[in-house]
Amino acid sequence: GSKFVQAAYQLRSANKLPESLVEINKAVAIDKNNYYAWQLRGDINSVMNNTEDAIEDLKKAIALKPDEAVLYYTKGKYEGQARKFDEALKDAKQAVQLDPKNMDYLYMRASGYAIAQEYKKAIADATVVINADSKNMAAYRLRSVCYFKSGDKKRSAADDREYQRL
């Protein structure tokens, strides 16, 4: 199956999505235990706007490799696209638990908390992201909105000014 995975990857890189999907389907038919093939199929399905299929592919990848943080993060992105925000937040939490130093995972968890109106948690996560990367515009914007929604207009305005400056 690895030759089909390689072919699918090359076709995906060339943006030949239907052809890539054919090859990755061959790969998973041969080796249903190849988590990377499921992950790649999820990526292909996502780009082709087959979000539900992408989520199912990532579930299979996670079942095979449950300690791989990026799989939860990726599944969470797809769930966010599908407006399944509760599930996306659960996956973001799991990704952060497995890799707490990854700021992408932490930012996704902060976004999930913001959507869930858990503003204190969102602010705490966004602050960690900002402390790690003082030029992270998205984290300033998110934190500004959360401060505003929680009634702290002074801090919201300060973050908004920093966002505008960047």
In short:
Helices cover 80% and strands 0% of the residues. It is built from 10 helices and no strands.
**Can you summarize the main beta sheet?**
none
Shape: elongated
Structural class assignment:
mainly alpha
Q: Could you tell me the strand content as a percent range?
A: under 5%
- Helicity range: over 70%
Radius of gyration: 18 Å
Describe the structure.
The chain has 166 residues and is mostly helical. Helices cover 80% and strands 0% of the residues. It has helices at residues 2-13, 17-30, 35-47, 51-64, 69-81, 85-98, 103-115, 119-132, 137-149, 153-165. Helix 1 (2-13) runs antiparallel to helix 2 and helix 5 runs antiparallel to helix 6. The radius of gyration is 18 Å and the shape is elongated. The termini are far apart.
Please supply descriptive tags for the structure shown above.
166 residues, 80% helix, 0% strand
